[in-house]
Amino acid sequence: MKFTSYYSQLVKAHGVPHVGSKEHFLIMNILFLEASMHALETLPCEGQSQVNKNKKMEQLKWKLRDLTRRQTPEELFRMVME
Q1: Does pLDDT of 33 surpass 90?
Q2: Is there a contact between 43 and 19 (Cβ–Cβ < 8 Å)?
Q3: What is the distance between the alpha carbons of residues 80 and 40, in angstroms, rounded to a whole number?
Q4: Are 68 and 3 in contact (CB under 8 A)?
Q5: Which residues neighbour 30 within 8 Å (Cβ) at sequence distance 6 or greater?
Q6: In the chain, how long is the greatest CA-to-CA distance?
Q7: C-alpha distances in angstroms, 20 versus 26, 31, 81?
């Protein structure tokens, strides 16, 4: 949850950023995907459930990569804040 942690530190240090709606939705989608991945990681699974869990985790990772454009949290939030 590297984007979530970074955003949390950013808000604590500088307050809630003033960004446009497009940027706000991007941030919220990234935080949601990371939270979903974290929740999925904590679920105990066996057999076919584990296979389904792995497939879903890969889908979430690809969505996160697409949204972040493979940037680090620092790069992404610097771009969003401009």
Answers
A1: yes
A2: no
A3: 28
A4: yes
A5: 3, 4, 64, 67, 68, 76
A6: 47
A7: 10, 17, 9
**What does the chain come to in residues?**
82
Q: Map 23-69 to HEC letters.
A: HHHHHHHHHHHHHHHHHHHHCCCCCHHHHHHHHHHHHHHHHHHHHHC
- Whether residue 3 contacts residue 29, with contact meaning beta carbons closer than 8 Å, is answered with no
Per the structure block, which two tokens stand in for 68? Answer: 């972040």
pTM: 0.90
Radius of gyration of the chain (CA): 15
pLDDT digits (tens, 9 = 90+) for 39-74: 999 989 888 899 999 999 999 999 999 999 999 999
Alpha-carbon distance 7 to 16, whole Å? 9
C-beta separation of 81 from 6 below 8 A: no
